[in-house]
Amino acid sequence: MSEEKFPERPGEPECSYYLRTGNCYLKQNCKYHHPKNITPSEPQCTLNDKGLPLRPGQAICPHYSRFGICRSGPTCKFDHST
Question: Structure pTM?
């Protein structure tokens, strides 16, 4: 299995999405710095069986309710109750 490589751009601002998740959907096209050896912050909520956040009291994720998947993953601000 090949390891994904993200661009290191010292002197540029760090990619906030990469720092939170350890991933960057723009990959080599991202203009921000992706420091090596980062540890993504853990979500501060319970996750469902698909690894998506359960956020009681928040609106249901529109993409999840329509398609059963979430583009934002564990960092989504919406609820993913089953």
Answer: 0.50
Beta bridge partners of 60: 79
Residue 28, judged by CB atoms within 10 A of its CB (0-12, 13-18, 19+), counts as exposed
DSSP conformation letters of the chain: -PPP-----TTSPB-HHHHHHS--TTGGG--SB--SS--PPPPSS-B-TTS-B--TTSPBPHHHHHHS--SSGGG-SSB---
Residue scoring higher pLDDT (5 or 55): 55
Show the tokens assigned to 33: 């710095």
The type of residue at 29 is N
